[in-house]
Amino acid sequence: MATLKDASTQVQSQQLAMLERLLEDVNIAAFSDKWGPEKVLRVYDPQLGMEGILIIDNTALGPGKGGFRIRAGLTPLEVFGLARTMTWKCALANLPFGGAKGGISADPYSIDKQSYVRAFAKAVSAHVPNEWVSAPDMNVGEEEIAAFVEVIGDRKAATGKPERLGGIPHELGTTGFGLGVTIETTLSMLSEFVPIKDTPEGLTVAVHGFGNVGSEVAKYLARKGAKIVAIGDYWGGAYNPKGIDIDQAMKHAYATDEAHSCKHLKGAKELGRDDVLEVECDVLIPAAVGNVITERNASRIKAGLIVEGANNPTTPAGEEILFKRGILILPDMLANSGGVIGSYAEYLGKSIDEAFAMIDARIRENTKTVLSSSISGDVVMLPRAVAMMIAKERVLKATERRMNKGSL
Question: Is 261 left (phi over 0), alpha (psi -120 to 50) or beta?
């Protein structure tokens, strides 16, 4: 018969094994540089089996801003990439935030999300909100954020809260709205230099990912007269060169199972999930997950302009191929910053209307700044390279100010 001591020893062994597994893929030296990360945390709740990650990349400009996601197989390297993107995104948007990102490694459809979120919030509470201000991300919505804020006990702990908590929910479509503004501004500028439409009217668009970001930008562009020719989600896609009925398509938005997938859209041809990336169109919007455009498929992309709705959807090797082919990419740190700009408006206590006005103004200004530097002169520069130079300069100046203040 097993004794209490035997049971205790078994539990301790299981916990040690878990801790060893949590640590085995954390090689900070592999992604550490002069910019960060400042902190890498792995947290674990033995009762739930909750495994969480928080990476605070850089706080020179202010507390690290960035949401948390729930995804099976989440790794520190993935979270770091997202945190670093937030560092540059906040700097480019000229916000008083640094970069950070969090996540829970779990299948979001097989757990009690509220319990996992509460356990995660408790585990990272010492760093919130002074070092990290969270927000919704993949598989995390306003109700999960409400639970996160409740555990922390401070409404400044996160943005994207429900309206009842004074929030501006991401479900209102701030990121998708910002993408639409980016595209409008880009068309207006580029039409002065190349034969391209100067407004979304008649523009053909493919959207890879039809959740909060993809569906909202599709609605925005359709209202402006664009023709959405392809949409897709995790299970598949739909294609109609004559244009997809957005009202019908919205019935398939936010699909959480194959039965409700975009691939079942009536009046459209079914496509494979990643075939959506390769349809012929004026604008391609990758708005699902990272690393979907790579050196393996970049040569098959048929869009003239790519606008990144997701974080890190294009690999450096893929971008190099596209650039050589003359395909312009508006990087995530510029194009999908509507969400974080809206978050800043919420952080300041602004209204929903004020938030959308701020997104519109800042994204138009930032897009003009990046593109004017990118296409001026004899040599066209990658918009991402220009955006990075601007962001790095701002972070560097903030770092120097902090160091000088500390030496006084």
Answer: beta
